[in-house]
Amino acid sequence: MVEIERKFLVISESFIGESFAQKRIVQAYLSSVPERTVRIRIKGDKGFITIKGKSNNSGTTRLEWEKEISLQEAESLLSICESGIIDKIRYEVKVGNHVFEVDVFSGENEGLIIAEIELQSEHEIFEKPLWLGKEVTNDERFYNSFLSKKPFKTW
Amino acid sequence: MVEIERKFLVISESFIGESFAQKRIVQAYLSSVPERTVRIRIKGDKGFITIKGKSNNSGTTRLEWEKEISLQEAESLLSICESGIIDKIRYEVKVGNHVFEVDVFSGENEGLIIAEIELQSEHEIFEKPLWLGKEVTNDERFYNSFLSKKPFKTW
């Protein structure tokens, strides 16, 4: 239930040609409080509820709990979420031994592209592709829960 | 996913002798915002996550979604909930064709006893036992999400 992930800005769209899967993600929050976010997500034709605790001091380890739910349940729960729906296409890109999830945001967050990688430990080594920019793991502004309240276009 | 329930204060403990089941309930909230409460509950030896929307104007119809989760998951999620744990014994009492759930609170809410009945429609008729007091369906102070922030003993 604990995940280690690192987040980076993306500086070119060249990853799209290397992507082996793409899915639209629509999500919103029942709670966007950083100590306990509760997210409802539709990813392709599946629904999910995901709960995350707050990161530890280094920002990379946090409690995460997720369950698949039906599309109908997800739609029903989205209807009572906080305003600020996030809409994005997620590209999966294999680089060396790892898979990056690269999110291309639309709507109020258009212009923003973020890559995320899940690691076994905080110091695990991974290959950095040319399109990978600055690390933003510890920058709360790039949390989806923050983007739903303060979208990229308003920065 | 829509429930109709009415809530009443309880004016005597005589219901205990009529009860056919009792379970301890410990619960807390990931979100206690009335528009979208997210509750983690341990009831006996089972765990649950429950999400409720806001009541309509008459206060009796609201979106409700619930999934059973493991005891271990519930304990893990309770650890990141808002402060203000609710601890109570729930008695089930059959009265006529209906079952009342009667909650006897302890801890910070000691002294409070609330009976709840689930109905098919807002105007369904049901038998009122002698121990049933004033209706509090529309009184937000008696929501468990409110009691977790403003416990009965502080009133």
From TrEMBL, chains A, B:
Gene3D superfamilies associated with the record: Hypothetical Protein Pfu-838710-001 (2.40.320.10)
Matches recorded under CDD domains: CYTH-like_CthTTM-like_1 (cd07891)
Domain CYTH: from-to ranges: 1-149
Domain of life: Bacteria
One Pfam family cited in the UniProt record for this chain: CYTH
SMART domains cross-referenced by the UniProt entry: CYTH
Protein name: CYTH domain-containing protein
Organism for this UniProt entry: Flavobacterium solisilvae
